[in-house]
Specification:
With 139 residues, the protein is an alpha/beta fold. The chain has a single domain, classed as Collagenase (Catalytic Domain), CATH 3.40.390. The protein has five helices and four strands; from the N terminus they run E-H-E-H-E-E-H-H-H. It has a four-stranded mixed β-sheet with strand order 1-2-4-3, sandwiched between helices. Strand 3 and strand 4 form a beta hairpin. Helix 3 packs across helix 4. The longest helix is centred in the C-terminal third of the chain and has 18 residues.
Length: 139
Amino acid sequence: MIRYYYQDTDFVFKPKLITKQWLKTVAGSEMKKLGDISIIFSSDNYILDINIKYLQHDYFTDIITFDYCVGNVISGDLFISVDSVRENSMYFKTKFEDELDRVIVHGLLHLIGYDDHTDEQQELMRRKENYYLSIRNSY
């Protein structure tokens, strides 16, 4: 089950049902099943506090993923900074909604088991993101 929460932001995420169907397809394509996923939309300051408190990283980021997966069942928390996503969409000259979807699927791919520490891993992650974004429009 996917649940949506808001911390320190006025942002409201509307395409909940479509996103649930899309993420279920992503998980199934990777031979995984959706468990409990919490998507928490927040401000830069809120995610910075999470980053410092739990990861000892003193910097802003667009997403922090906490993995609670067991076997093939994907569960976890996706903390998303709406502020950073908005800034990234301007920087990359993309629509905010597209950048937000990229960050959401990026977090899900981390829960599935993909990493992005090396250049090769980043390239694979980007290819996966692009593919799943391309099928997102079919919902």
